[in-house]
Design goal:
284 residues, mainly beta, Porin
Length: 284
């Protein structure tokens, strides 16, 4: 009888110890899991509406309208608390602006030819400060690799609303000035004094230069700063799906520095509004 009681007591202690150990391990696992920072990696693609904003009174940078483009990239979200996350990104985005109508023409082959005989007839040379004018369409097509570092605030569980703010750095990948149309060239901004050219021997009578084509794609990357920086403000919403979430994002961005290198061409700042759709997968 004493032996039976001894084994019963021993069995009780073994079972009790096992249950206690399992409970402790379960609690420790839960605590470790609770301390683990959730990480989400996502992809997104969307539509951008870029804008060149003129910050000076300069003939080369005024009256630009918005242009549309594409925006896509990767997001990396590190949740600090249920409210606050850090969200760095890597994005390709198209920026730029479009201008239509009578506008200045930067130095070209025609300017060089006119400057060969203008001084002999008392006319001022064609320069960036005293350019030719024509009526045409001009579009700046700028491609950037942008790296934002956002602080994100979110509310909700299965369905969440969010707001994010932070700086970004942009690296210029490609810059093209696309011009199109046909026009006469003028010596004044009002378009009332057409360009005239001398006869074959370089002497009078002078004749008005005929209408010229302005179809061209010009690489202007060397005229612009390679790096720009600015700020972003975003609003979004997300819905959990499986081990991740689908999200929509609307944001506005604005560069703090001007993009031109030469002061002759004024100061323009890149801005834009972007609408994106994406999916983020939780990997931890």
């Amino acid at each position: 009888m004493k032996i039976i009681k001894f084994y019963s007591l021993l069995l009780f202690l073994i079972v009790g110890g096992t249950v206690k150990t399992i409970a402790q391990n379960s609690q420790e696992t839960k605590e470790v899991k609770d301390k683990t920072t959730p990480i989400l990696i996502g992809v997104k693609a969307g539509f951008s509406l870029g804008k060149l904003t003129n910050s000076t009174d300069n003939i080369y940078t005024e009256n630009y309208e918005s242009v549309s483009g594409i925006d896509f990239g990767f997001t990396f979200e590190f949740k600090i608390t249920n409210l606050i996350s850090m969200q760095p990104e890597i994005n390709f985005t198209q920026r730029g602006g479009k201008r239509t109508g009578l506008q200045p023409v930067t130095g070209n082959e025609l300017s060089d030819q006119l400057n060969k005989f203008f001084p002999f007839i008392g006319m001022p040379p064609i320069t960036n400060e005293n350019p030719l004018y024509a009526t045409f369409e001009s579009e700046s097509d700028l491609n950037y690799l942008e790296v934002p570092a956002l602080v994100k605030f979110g509310w909700g569980n299965d369905f969440r609303f969010s707001a994010a703010v932070g700086p970004y750095v942009g690296i210029l990948l490609k810059a093209t000035q696309k011009t199109s149309g046909e026009s006469q060239f003028y010596l004044n901004a009002e378009g009332t004094n057409p360009v005239f050219v001398p006869g074959p021997d370089g002497l009078p009578p002078y004749t008005v230069l005929p209408v010229q084509s302005l179809e061209a794609d010009t690489n202007i990357k060397d005229d612009l700063k390679t790096v720009n920086f600015g700020g972003i403000f975003a609003l979004g919403a997300s819905k959990k799906i499986g081990n991740g979430e689908i999200f929509i994002d609307a944001r506005a961005s604005y560069s703090f520095n001007s993009i031109q290198i030469k002061k002759d061409f004024g100061k323009s700042h890149i801005g834009g509004v972007i609408f994106s759709l994406g999916y983020a997968l939780q990997i931890q």
